[in-house]
TrEMBL record:
This is DinB family protein. Gene3D superfamilies: dinb family like domain. Pfam families: DinB_2. Residues 4-88 form the DinB-like domain. It comes from the Bacteria. InterPro entries: DinB-like, DinB/YfiT-like.
Length: 122
Protein backbone atom coordinates (compact mmCIF):
# COMPACT_ATOMS: atom_id res chain seq x y z
CA UNK A 1 0.00 0.00 0.00
CA UNK A 2 3.00 2.27 0.43
CA UNK A 3 4.80 1.37 -2.80
CA UNK A 4 4.01 3.09 -6.09
CA UNK A 5 1.72 0.92 -8.19
CA UNK A 6 4.25 1.31 -10.99
CA UNK A 7 7.25 3.47 -11.70
CA UNK A 8 6.42 7.17 -11.40
CA UNK A 9 2.90 6.50 -10.10
CA UNK A 10 1.24 7.03 -6.76
CA UNK A 11 0.91 4.48 -3.98
CA UNK A 12 -2.49 3.03 -3.10
CA UNK A 13 -2.28 5.09 0.10
CA UNK A 14 -1.87 8.27 -1.97
CA UNK A 15 -4.67 7.30 -4.36
CA UNK A 16 -7.15 6.70 -1.54
CA UNK A 17 -5.90 9.89 0.15
CA UNK A 18 -6.51 11.80 -3.08
CA UNK A 19 -10.09 10.51 -3.29
CA UNK A 20 -10.67 11.29 0.39
CA UNK A 21 -9.31 14.83 0.14
CA UNK A 22 -11.47 15.69 -2.89
CA UNK A 23 -14.54 14.22 -1.17
CA UNK A 24 -13.68 16.28 1.91
CA UNK A 25 -13.45 19.41 -0.24
CA UNK A 26 -16.77 18.69 -1.92
CA UNK A 27 -18.45 17.92 1.39
CA UNK A 28 -17.13 21.01 3.18
CA UNK A 29 -17.04 23.60 0.39
CA UNK A 30 -19.34 22.69 -2.48
CA UNK A 31 -22.28 20.70 -1.10
CA UNK A 32 -23.29 23.21 1.62
CA UNK A 33 -23.72 25.86 -1.11
CA UNK A 34 -25.63 23.69 -3.61
CA UNK A 35 -29.02 25.25 -4.18
CA UNK A 36 -31.07 26.37 -7.12
CA UNK A 37 -29.59 29.40 -8.90
CA UNK A 38 -26.36 29.46 -6.88
CA UNK A 39 -22.92 29.97 -8.40
CA UNK A 40 -20.53 27.62 -6.58
CA UNK A 41 -16.89 28.60 -6.14
CA UNK A 42 -14.45 27.40 -8.80
CA UNK A 43 -12.55 24.21 -8.11
CA UNK A 44 -9.07 24.77 -6.69
CA UNK A 45 -6.02 24.17 -8.83
CA UNK A 46 -5.98 20.38 -9.13
CA UNK A 47 -2.21 19.92 -8.88
CA UNK A 48 -1.95 22.18 -5.82
CA UNK A 49 -4.95 20.52 -4.17
CA UNK A 50 -3.43 17.08 -4.75
CA UNK A 51 -0.12 18.21 -3.20
CA UNK A 52 -2.03 19.53 -0.19
CA UNK A 53 -3.77 16.15 0.12
CA UNK A 54 -0.47 14.28 0.27
CA UNK A 55 0.87 16.74 2.85
CA UNK A 56 -2.35 16.73 4.91
CA UNK A 57 -2.33 12.93 5.13
CA UNK A 58 1.43 12.47 5.57
CA UNK A 59 1.25 11.33 9.22
CA UNK A 60 -1.85 9.14 8.87
CA UNK A 61 -1.82 5.38 8.59
CA UNK A 62 -3.22 3.62 5.54
CA UNK A 63 -6.02 2.25 7.70
CA UNK A 64 -6.99 5.69 9.04
CA UNK A 65 -7.00 7.14 5.52
CA UNK A 66 -9.23 4.32 4.25
CA UNK A 67 -11.58 4.74 7.23
CA UNK A 68 -11.74 8.52 6.69
CA UNK A 69 -12.42 8.02 2.98
CA UNK A 70 -15.27 5.57 3.64
CA UNK A 71 -16.93 7.81 6.22
CA UNK A 72 -16.51 10.94 4.13
CA UNK A 73 -17.85 9.25 1.00
CA UNK A 74 -20.91 7.98 2.88
CA UNK A 75 -21.59 11.46 4.27
CA UNK A 76 -21.04 13.06 0.84
CA UNK A 77 -23.57 10.70 -0.78
CA UNK A 78 -26.05 11.35 2.03
CA UNK A 79 -25.70 15.13 1.84
CA UNK A 80 -25.96 15.27 -1.95
CA UNK A 81 -29.08 13.10 -1.85
CA UNK A 82 -30.69 15.64 0.50
CA UNK A 83 -30.43 18.48 -2.05
CA UNK A 84 -33.54 19.29 -4.04
CA UNK A 85 -33.64 17.19 -7.18
CA UNK A 86 -34.49 20.13 -9.44
CA UNK A 87 -31.74 22.44 -8.07
CA UNK A 88 -29.48 23.83 -10.80
CA UNK A 89 -26.22 25.68 -10.14
CA UNK A 90 -23.09 26.84 -11.90
CA UNK A 91 -19.45 26.42 -10.90
CA UNK A 92 -16.93 29.25 -10.97
CA UNK A 93 -17.03 31.32 -14.15
CA UNK A 94 -18.87 28.61 -16.05
CA UNK A 95 -22.28 29.15 -17.59
CA UNK A 96 -23.26 25.49 -17.72
CA UNK A 97 -25.88 24.57 -15.17
CA UNK A 98 -25.38 21.43 -13.13
CA UNK A 99 -27.75 19.29 -11.13
CA UNK A 100 -26.64 17.07 -8.27
CA UNK A 101 -26.76 14.13 -10.69
CA UNK A 102 -24.56 15.83 -13.27
CA UNK A 103 -22.19 17.00 -10.52
CA UNK A 104 -21.85 13.40 -9.25
CA UNK A 105 -21.19 12.30 -12.85
CA UNK A 106 -18.40 14.86 -13.23
CA UNK A 107 -16.79 13.73 -9.98
CA UNK A 108 -17.09 10.09 -10.99
CA UNK A 109 -15.65 10.58 -14.49
CA UNK A 110 -12.90 12.87 -13.23
CA UNK A 111 -11.78 10.12 -10.87
CA UNK A 112 -12.15 7.45 -13.56
CA UNK A 113 -9.93 9.55 -15.79
CA UNK A 114 -7.56 10.09 -12.87
CA UNK A 115 -7.37 6.35 -12.24
CA UNK A 116 -6.86 5.52 -15.90
CA UNK A 117 -4.42 8.27 -16.83
CA UNK A 118 -2.51 8.89 -13.62
CA UNK A 119 -2.53 5.54 -11.92
CA UNK A 120 -2.82 3.17 -14.87
CA UNK A 121 -5.20 0.93 -12.93
CA UNK A 122 -6.80 -1.68 -15.16
Amino acid sequence: MNKPISEGKWTIREIVGHLYYWDKYNLEIMVPKMANGVNLPPFPDHDQHNKEAISYLRDNTVESIIDAFIETRKELIKRISEIEEDARFTIGEGKRQFSCESYKYICKTRHSSFATNTCKIK
